[in-house]
């Protein structure tokens, strides 16, 4: 992709994503994810009329005087986009969907005044996009997504989740975008959910989920290069993906706007 093609592609994504962020995502995103909790502010001396439920009994016992914990409503939650850049997500339809999805989520967060950051990973964490606000930052994030050349082919979701968990302690909204063709990450995903608001988005392509009957196929793993032979003479074979509890599964032939909007509406009702 030369410079002119890149600029055209970014412009197309910007126009579509901005319209979606302004018309659909913003309202659902805002009502569902903003101000979902309370954040610790300070400890101060108890005053008559304070709620006794706020008393910090450990500090009170230590100081021999009553102290209470003060909390403030979370007004801003930083948004992190953890994007799987491995070879299994590098097919054109998947990559196009991921690019538009990331841009739409980023523009929606930016419209709400939230800082947005990114983490690109394969079998290693490859690139970190710092948390910032503004349209220029969002466009730079999208450009990085479209132009970044990965150093590795494989996928290690566990490594990415652990790295993120160690680096970012303050509570935020975390979108994990991947085909989730990996194993052993479930425990780390649950641990991350204890601190952050984590939303898993599984990207799938129907073309690679079924093998028609009546043929012998030689399949190559796009990440490892390993080849296997599948004899599929008698019946059609289904290549099932994972089933992420509480996550979103989006196929490349689906309208991701509808899928995400419905997901946010369900969360708001809960």
UniProtKB/TrEMBL annotation:
Transmembrane domains' residue ranges: none
Domain of life from the UniProt record: Bacteria
Domain spans labelled VWFA: 76-238
InterPro entries cross-referenced by the UniProt entry: DUF58, VWF_A, vWFA_dom_sf
Pfam family membership, one: DUF58
CDD domains found in the cross-reference section: vWFA (cd00198)
SUPFAM superfamilies recorded: vWA-like
Name of the protein in its database record: VWFA domain-containing protein
């Amino acid at each position: 992709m030369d410079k002119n093609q890149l600029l055209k592609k970014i412009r197309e994504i910007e126009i579509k994503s901005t319209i979606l962020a302004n018309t659909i995502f913003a309202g659902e995103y805002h009502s569902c994810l903003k101000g979902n909790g309370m954040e610790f502010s300070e400890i101060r001396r108890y005053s008559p009329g304070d709620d006794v439920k706020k008393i910090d009994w450990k500090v009170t016992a230590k100081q021999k005087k009553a102290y209470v914990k003060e909390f403030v409503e979370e007004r801003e939650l930083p948004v992190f986009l953890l994007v799987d850049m491995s070879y299994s997500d590098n097919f054109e339809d998947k990559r196009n969907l991921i690019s538009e999805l990331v841009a739409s989520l980023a523009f929606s967060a930016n419209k709400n005044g939230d800082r947005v950051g990114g983490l690109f990973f394969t079998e290693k964490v490859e690139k970190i996009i710092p948390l910032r606000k503004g349209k220029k930052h969002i466009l730079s994030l999208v450009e990085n997504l479209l132009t970044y050349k990965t150093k590795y082919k494989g996928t290690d979701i566990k490594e990415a989740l652990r790295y993120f968990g160690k680096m970012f302690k303050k509570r935020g909204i975390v979108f994990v975008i991947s085909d989730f063709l990996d194993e052993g990450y479930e425990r780390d995903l649950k641990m991350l959910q204890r601190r952050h608001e984590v939303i898993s988005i599984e990207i799938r392509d129907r073309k690679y989920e079924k093998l028609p009957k009546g043929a012998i196929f030689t399949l190559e793993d796009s990440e490892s290069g390993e080849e296997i032979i599948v004899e599929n003479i008698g019946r059609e074979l289904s290549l099932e993906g994972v089933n992420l509890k509480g996550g979103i599964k989006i196929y490349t032939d689906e309208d991701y706007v509808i899928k995400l909007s419905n997901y946010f509406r369900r969360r708001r009702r809960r």
